[in-house]
Amino acid sequence: MIYLDNAATTKPSSTALSKAQVFITERYFNPSAKYQEGHSLQSELKTARSALLSAVADTLNFEFIFTSCGTESDNQAIFSFARRGNAVTTAGEHSAVSASFAELKQRGIDVRIAPLKQDGSVDVDALLAQVDDKTSFVSVMHVNNETGAINDVNAIAKRVKQKNPRTIFHSDGVQAYGKIPFRLSKDVDLYSVSAHKLGGLKGVGGLIKRKTLVLPPYIIGGGQESGRRSGTENVFGIMSFAYAAAEKMQSLKENYDRIFRYRETLWSNLNQNWFVRFTSGTASPYILSLSAKGLRGEILLHMAEDRGLLIGTGSACSSNAKNRYSKVILAMGYSEEIADGFIRLSFSAETTEEEILDAAKLLNEIVEELRKRMNIKD
Ligand code: PLP
Predict the structure, then answer these.
(1) What ligand 1 atom has the least distance to the C-alpha of 205?
(2) Which residue out of 153, 175, 202, 287 has the highest number of ligand 1 atoms within 8 Å of its CB and is therefore the one to mutate?
(3) CA–CA distance from 358 to each of 4, 47, 198, 308, 362 (Å)?
(4) 317 catalytically annotated
(5) What DSSP line would sit under 197-253, residue for residue?
(6) CA 305 to CA 112: how far, in whole Å?
(7) 207 with 192: CB under 8 angstroms?
(8) Considering Cα of 214, then 215, then 220, then 223, what sign does the dihedral take?
């Protein structure tokens, strides 16, 4: 099986899992327990927290709060800070942000959505035009999960703060963390990450927060995470997140360069007459989004699956016309016909060149077969 749906989730790192195993087999205690085992788990969590944070931010000005997933981190940021006036986001956001903004609208917040450019990044001038003295919150994703498009969130945050220094700036960094060389600037207040996109487990995430910002808790209870996110810590999940992230951070640049080469190799091995490429050359190398012209992405996905290749598609598997086309692809200005052919190939540091070449060959074969069947001429 060739797995090229790593933007959906990655295979957990076996090294990270085996290193963390001791936290379920022997050191299974509650980190809040008053005896020595509890204290020593607290110190393990502290080390993990500081390593996860220092990989992208300075530990003097930022702190790291463990959450149950990237979605919770996004929700926590949005519902804690977008509480008055207007809130601005982009047309490219993951549903963890876009559906939360829809909810904000229901709650009476003036929600403003900035358009995308054809490369899938946000139109920064249009976004800034929406920011005014009543803007309480801005959320701009770092790397788009459907196209890999990168937003320069440090630069955008700086311009937002120049327009309104009181606006809280959040970025969803779930597809960027551990993959894109990056450090948070002082203008970014909140940054969401998730463990399962880089070899950790599903159900573990983090919210990076500027220390001076007071976070009203979203989950209230036993006062864990210094009262900002209650609930007994998922020690195994957190420790395996930290081990997996350390692995990825250590070879981030080599992985980036190699995966970039693979993505371009995959693209150059496809019959380019049959595909439209959505992912720009400057996007995250971990994603290659395409449209198979005149075909349905979902059909391709299932034919590829039958032949042992797992890929993604942006369009929800739904006969509901409203969900049939990726909103992100349409927001980039493509037609519904092109959006219909959307497939996403996404890589991890473990992806091999052989897999890339085999995937290109398979996709060419499937598309050729479908085009013949449907009588589509070159
Ligand atoms: N944000 C982005 C950009 C994502 O790609 C995802 C996962 O698909 C999420 C948020 C949600 O993360 P999680 O699955 O940890 O809730």
Answers:
(1) 15
(2) 175
(3) 11, 41, 23, 10, 6
(4) yes
(5) GTTS-TT-EEEEEETTS----SS-SS-TGGGTS-S---HHHHHHHHHHHHHHHHTHH
(6) 39
(7) yes
(8) negative
- Residue 30: how many CA atoms within 13 Å on its side-chain side? 8
pLDDT tens-digit series, residues 48-97 = 999 999 999 999 999 999 999 999 999 999 999 999 999 999 999 999 99
Other CB atoms within 10 A of residue 45 CB: 19
**Both tokens of residue 243?**
């081990």
Q: Does 346 sit in the ligand 1 pocket, CB within 6 Å?
A: no
Q: Which ligand 1 atom lies nearest to the CA of residue 196?
A: 15
List of residues 6+ apart from 18 with CB closer than 8 A: none
The two beta strands, 86-90 and 110-114, are: parallel
Our answer on whether the CB atom of 208 is closer than 6 Å to any ligand 1 atom is: no
Closest atom, ligand 1, to C-alpha of 69: 15
DSSP 150: B
Q: How far apart are CA 378 and CA 371, in angstroms?
A: 9
Whether this prediction's pTM lies above 0.90 is answered by yes
Complete edge-to-edge strand list for the sheet that includes strand 275-277: 275-277, 287-292, 342-346
Does ligand 1 have an atom closer than 6 angstroms to the CB of 67? no
Distance 94 CA to ligand 1 centre (A): 7
> What tokens were used for 25?
């087999």
Give the residue, by CA position, lying nearest to ligand 1 atom 9: 70
Summarised one tens digit per residue, pLDDT across range 267-302 is: 999 999 999 999 999 999 999 999 999 999 999 999
Provide the residue type at 220 as one letter. Answer: I
- Does the Cβ of 175 fall within 6 Å of ligand 1? yes
